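## retry 2 of 3
previous attempt timed out at serialization; input unchanged, resubmitting
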Amino acid sequence: MTEFELNNEYFEWMCQLVCNERYSRRLSYQKLLRHLHNIDFQYMLPMDGNRAEDGIDLRYRFGYEKEYGGPMISSYLDNRPCSVLEMLIALAFRCEEHIMTDPDIGNRMGQWFWNMIVSLGLGSMSDSRFDAAYTDDVISRFMNRKYKRNGEGGLFTVERCKYDMRTVEIWWQMNWYLDSIL
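## retry succeeded, writing output
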């Protein structure tokens, strides 16, 4: 298997984790997801480095599930920083598996992922409406923490939040968001 083939398989694997009829409403978001995978995740708060590490770990989860050895993953996938897409999907995994797991409801990983996409302002970026420049602006605003105090324009919007979401790590933002919807 070539590096190109493995990278494509990994990208498709990530997409199938969050794209299905339940969450993406039969529209294709391949252009948006590919673009997010081509942007390196950058962070300002040191603890958000944990989100980058989770994104890197996603590569090895893929390798384990697909029975690819660690050396192959290390050589072919783990040769660049964590992408924005990897960070978002890994965070959706954490949310579902570590906090929100409910066997009666089923896997809602896609729900958490698409809620972040909508909060960022990228919900309309289906393939037929994709705008790379707009997406770059949105992601730049997110990574530079230039979104609204309540998190709108970032990953999580919390109405009437008593804290400035721009000043806390992503993990706390997610937890406050989950508290606000429960």
